[in-house]
């Protein structure tokens, strides 16, 4: 089965073809970073318009790169949600139109389920069951994963997502958009122990997160530090270490409570090398393994949508004829393929 995947949930246009026999045949992503940099964040209307411009040329490119024509496809997957509604509608319109024209099944994919399953595309994928940390600009959650569509939410952020906290903290430090990678780079020159940030909610039981307080802590330090560039680097280092420690502590608790020895870390923030080093050290100490998507598949991409669509179509899902997208869609509302 060959599935075309289309991702347009926010500010990346991603297209890919996944083949059940040959694996990932081709994928391409167009990033809108330069488009939104002037505004310091994603402008929904501009994002939607750029998806309109980019998606069909990317479909043509990916089909050519895969050595296939549209007639060779067996299904189409697109991101149904969560995300920006206008952006989602672009991918849904193109995906469903392509499927309708060729009488193919079209399936709307949950964006976070796709992130969660992306590490299964790697050469040494984790076996079920495992614990997944989904950490991105819009979400931070711990999930017990028994199989495709078999998810139990263990904990989530009560305020800002970790990626959102990175971006907002970077803005406080005067760094350009997108802030997360810029903050990681600045933190490399920082002293690790000059500023001791709190590790929110690690002194109480449970697996929920809170990152808004770290922003307030950062704001106070920035105001007190003046224009000292070394202080800025030290603040970035302290903030990043605090987030890394907090996430690792919660993941360790989740592994112990679940009794599984496998951790998946996915989403855009999983590309951060400091966080990866902290997770690797924690997992080694626990006798567990940790799995990540390749760096190219950490941020939003069509490959994870095509793969998730393949798993669901191959498992018996057939999608619907309805045309709908959703800005909010709880992950735990999903069911196993073929059961819906």
Automatic annotation (TrEMBL):
Cofactor or coenzyme needed: Fe(2+)
Domain of life where this protein originates: Bacteria
Residue span(s) of domain Gcp-like: 24-307
Keyword Transmembrane listed: no
Top-level enzyme category: transferase
EC numbers: 2.3.1.234
One Pfam family cited in the UniProt record for this chain: TsaD
Example GO BP: tRNA threonylcarbamoyladenosine modification
CDD domains from the UniProt entry: ASKHA_NBD_TsaD_bac (cd24133)
Cofactor note: Binds 1 Fe(2+) ion per subunit.
Residues in coiled coil: none
Residues annotated for Fe cation binding in this entry: 111, 115, 300
Matches recorded under SUPFAM superfamilies: Actin-like ATPase domain
Protein keywords: Acyltransferase, Cytoplasm, Iron, Metal-binding, Transferase, tRNA processing
Family: Belongs to the KAE1 / TsaD family.
NCBIfam families (UniProt xref): gcp_kae1 (TIGR00329), T6A_TsaD_YgjD (TIGR03723)
The protein's role, per its UniProt record: Required for the formation of a threonylcarbamoyl group on adenosine at position 37 (t(6)A37) in tRNAs that read codons beginning with adenine. Is involved in the transfer of the threonylcarbamoyl moiety of threonylcarbamoyl-AMP (TC-AMP) to the N6 group of A37, together with TsaE and TsaB. TsaD likely plays a direct catalytic role in this reaction.
PANTHER family, per database record: TRNA N6-ADENOSINE THREONYLCARBAMOYLTRANSFERASE (PTHR11735), TRNA N6-ADENOSINE THREONYLCARBAMOYLTRANSFERASE, MITOCHONDRIAL (PTHR11735:SF6)
Name the UniProt record assigns to this protein: tRNA N6-adenosine threonylcarbamoyltransferase
Protein species of origin: Aquisalimonas asiatica
């Amino acid at each position: 089965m060959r599935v075309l995947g289309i991702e347009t949930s926010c500010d990346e246009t991603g297209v890919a073809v996944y083949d059940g026999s040959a694996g990932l045949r081709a994928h391409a992503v167009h990033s809108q970073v330069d488009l939104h940099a002037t505004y310091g964040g994603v402008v929904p209307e501009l994002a939607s318009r750029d998806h309109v411009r980019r998606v069909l040329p990317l479909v043509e490119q990916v089909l050519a790169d895969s050595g296939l024509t549209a007639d060779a496809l067996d299904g189409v997957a697109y991101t149904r949600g969560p995300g920006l509604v206008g952006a989602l509608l672009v991918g849904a319109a193109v995906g469903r139109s392509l499927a309708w024209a060729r009488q193919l099944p079209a399936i709307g994919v949950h964006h976070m389920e796709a992130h969660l399953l992306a590490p299964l595309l790697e050469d040494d994928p984790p076996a079920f069951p495992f614990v997944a940390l989904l950490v991105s600009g819009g979400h931070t959650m711990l999930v017990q994963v028994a199989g495709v569509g078999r998810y139990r939410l263990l904990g989530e952020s009560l305020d800002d997502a970790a990626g959102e906290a990175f971006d907002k903290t970077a803005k406080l430090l005067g760094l350009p958009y997108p802030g997360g990678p810029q903050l990681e780079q600045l933190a490399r020159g920082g002293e690790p122990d000059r500023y001791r940030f709190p590790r929110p909610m690690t002194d109480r039981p449970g697996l929920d997160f809170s990152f808004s307080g770290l922003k307030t802590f950062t704001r106070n330090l920035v105001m007190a530090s003046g224009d000292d560039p070394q202080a800025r680097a030290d603040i970035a280092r302290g903030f990043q270490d605090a987030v890394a420690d907090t996430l690792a502590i919660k993941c360790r608790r989740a592994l112990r409570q679940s009794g599984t020895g496998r951790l998946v870390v996915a989403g855009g923030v999983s590309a951060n090398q400091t966080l990866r080093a902290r997770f690797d050290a924690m997992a080694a100490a626990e006798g567990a393994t940790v799995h990540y998507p390749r760096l190219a598949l950490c941020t939003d991409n069509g490959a994870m949508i095509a793969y998730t669509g393949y798993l669901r179509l191959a498992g018996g899902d057939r999608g619907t004829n309805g045309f709908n997208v959703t800005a909010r869609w709880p992950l735990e509302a999903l069911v196993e393929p073929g059961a819906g």
